[in-house]
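Below is the record:
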Amino acid sequence: MTITTTSSRGRAFLRDHEGNPLTCYLDPVGVPTIGQGFTMLSDAVRAALAKRGITKLVPGKTKITAVQSDEILLEVLAAEFEPAVVEGSPSSRKQHQMDASVSAVYNLGTGAMGWRWAKLWRDGLVKEAAAYLGSHYNTASGKQLPGLARRRKEEANLFLNGNYAGVTSSKPEGVPREATVEPTKPDPVVKEAQEILTSKGFNPGSIDGWMGEKTKAAIIAYQKAHPHLVADGILGPATLSQLRRDAGTVREAVTKGVSSAAGSGVLAFAAGLPWGWIAAGVAILVVGYVAYRKRDVLERWWNTVTGKTVDV
């Protein structure tokens, strides 16, 4: 029988990597996201949400249920991602290869079935395809992200060996991997979170990649200061996205402000104008623009400073 759909274990594997926040949040680049990575950027997601009366995702306000999230995932996979994998892979595909590939294209986009790893698969070079998938497609803006690197490796292992990385037949749908599997080595994503927490004044203890009680307490304190986060101590997609947004805000403001001020200063000098005042004004405007665009980050910072607790 030709495999054309994702198995329940495959969906659980995908959910482990995507998470399943049932309240809308902003991803690291500011895109409203809900459930298992659902955004309005996808036609299939827009259609599935519209069927449930949702036409706009509002961070901290739009909510769905766990049942709705699973229903939407099934609809989105069937409409967009499973057909892409079927069309771009050998008809002899195995179930674990289908599941791994759906997870990959769900994260990378359906165009990923035209990339080198998939071509190797179509050419019958399964081991080479797995190796290439596991060592590539793990960067954003030229920087390797620990979470993406881990995901690609686990997808490659699933693709080649059928290892579902913590998903078992007895594991309930939607339960995070962290709740059932004890880690055997430091987690680079936890370490990344510890570094950001430390820089923001929340003390997670040693920056070692282990989710200890002190790190969990720091995450809860961070979540309590942030309006769109649930204070559960879980380092899920919403919390990790907000940490990354917080980490990038000051750097973006400084970088854009300095570069814009320098450029404006040169132009003003060439025109014989008081370049110092103009450059300063441009810098203020740029920083103000960044502050407005990431006003949710500043709101969370103010909550932290004032000790305000916000519940969703």
